[in-house]
Amino acid sequence: MAILNLLPLNYRRPALVERPTTSASQVSTQQSEDGSVNQGDTSLKSIRSGSSGGIPPPLSFDHIIEGGTCPPCTVRDFMNYLIYVERSAENLQFFLWYRDFEKRFNEAQTADLTLAPEWTLAMEEEAIARIKKEQAEKARVKPSKSVSPAVAEILKGTDFEKPIRKPSVATTIATTPISPLAASNGGDPFGTPPRTPSDRGHHYPNSTTATTYNTAANEAFALAGLKAPFTVQPFRVELDRIIATYIMSGSPRQLNLSDREQKVVLQALCFTTHPSALRVVVRSVESTLRQQAHPNFIRWSICNGNPVRVTFARCLGVGTIALSTIAAIILTLSSAPRGFRALPAIGWVIGVATLVAAYKGMCVVLHGLHHRHVRPWELFVVDEEDNQQNEKEQDVRSEKSLETGSNSFENEPWVVKYEKRNLIRKIFDREVWIQEPALRQIQDTIFVQSLLFAFICAGGLTAIFVPLPGGNLF
């Protein structure tokens, strides 16, 4: 029998981290009155070098991103978690794109790179200080009162009538289906923007789409009080799509940026297309991924059963404890020898261990096999493998899920299918083997902790019932 390779018995799984209300880069820049961002860079370095509690090194954020983990802890699983559970996949999508963009920019050997100088920290500090000053001046201006309906009716048709704001280009992008040609990422949530023409070696796949994103980017610059940048800069087409997809207000995958961060990054992108222009956004996104999304993903991955199965396991645990207690009471009231009163301890051990493990999201039966339930979004893909048209249907489903450019999944076929699935089938859903050794090690440790706690509880209850005098009622 193989010896379990356990973590320390005082191990605790990662705590649930709530979504931060203020972005990390905003906090770091607020720590200094003169707008210095050096502290933000230092804090980011400490985030990268540090490790979250309850997460072993093989499951660290960097290890997952570099592809050094097995299912269910791969980058694909991380992305699925952010899409279907946490609903914040735009952070990881942007982060992965930026890593690839930075690598391609540094490896490029074209002469037009001289048109994209670095956005230095001094420039960033100056931009932050200027935006702070503008915000302070606006705060001192008394807001105007709203016009009454009677006055609005009088002013109707005159030059003083309040103009009706037209929908932004970003709203149009978010609500207008993208053609299959424009969706050059092939429906893959990892492939956010297509590469620029100079990288691909041919023209942009759809000039109309390129014009749309350029218009949206110019609108974002105009709303920030900036002039449209030079279009001859390298990677400008790609960054226009990034602005229209992630940065500007109302974009389909809008990042959780403060107003100050948004204006700073737009000023930087108006000046250059160098990767350093996105420093503010990357700092905020990476901090959120490392400090909030990654610990929650590991905590969620520890659960080997779906919610229905875990609830069923809890009920079984409570039921087993109750039946064992009733049996101990009956044996105490009977004329049976005292030794028989220790038999319910077996049920107490099983019941308490099952209940404690279920409290941490684990089913002991699945754990005994080192299995986990197939996720709902994976379940019907597996079911369709028997159909020879599975590959074609999967491509159609991927295209439909990204028609609007957003990460919405409510219209995906598996949602309705899983809702119609009966309760018994959900409890005994399809299982797969857990391939990641570090995750199995965490689950083994939690199981042993549950057993130890169960033995302590069972020993205490047995010590109570065995010494009691018999009732001799029957």
UniProtKB/TrEMBL annotation:
Basic and acidic residues bias (residue ranges): 389-402
Top-rank taxon, per record: Eukaryota
SUPFAM superfamilies hit by this protein: Regulator of G-protein signaling, RGS
Ranges for region Disordered: 20-55, 175-208, 386-407
PANTHER family named in the record: RGS DOMAIN-CONTAINING PROTEIN (PTHR39466)
Keywords: Membrane, Transmembrane, Transmembrane helix
Segments traversing the membrane: 311-333, 345-369, 446-468
InterPro entries cross-referenced by the UniProt entry: RGS_sf, RGS_subdomain_2
Polar residues biased stretches: 33-42
Keyword Oxidoreductase: no
Extent of Low complexity compositional bias: 21-32
Keyword Membrane: yes
Designated name of the protein: RGS domain-containing protein
